[in-house]
Amino acid sequence: MKVLVIQGPNLNLLGEREEELYGGATLEEINFELEEVGKQLGVEVFSFQSNHEGEIVDVIQGAPVEEYEAIIINPAAYTHTSVAIRDALLAVRLPYYEVHISNIFAREEFRQRSLISDGASGIVTGFGTVGYTLALQGVSRHLDIQ
Fold this sequence. Notes:
Layout: E1 2-7, H1 19-22, H2 27-41, E2 44-49, H3 53-62, E3 70-74, H4 83-92, E4 96-100, E5 122-125, H5 130-145
Helix pairs in contact: 2-5, 3-4
């Protein structure tokens, strides 16, 4: 089983920015933990981060060619603005799972609307960086029962 993890803009700054919202873990630490949990679950995890919307769209569009079975995505600020990412996720017809480190529904009003959520197979929000692990465990179980 292969799962693609996509991280949106500014998540490369985790561990340096707004620790009260995002905690102290770096993106590299999150990726390492996902790989380790993936090994335990029998899931190959591939991580990608970009600050550029078009690059994220390209990676999503390439996911079926690379034989990924699901996508875990934290679109970050693009959650609230990117129709292009939404359309790409829907177009590839892979199950995708939305993750947010903070609880977007308890933040500023503009952050409380996700353009991504209604097509997601699952959503994890507000559990800090452990949300990625929860999402991976959920993906593994979901794909096992299909």
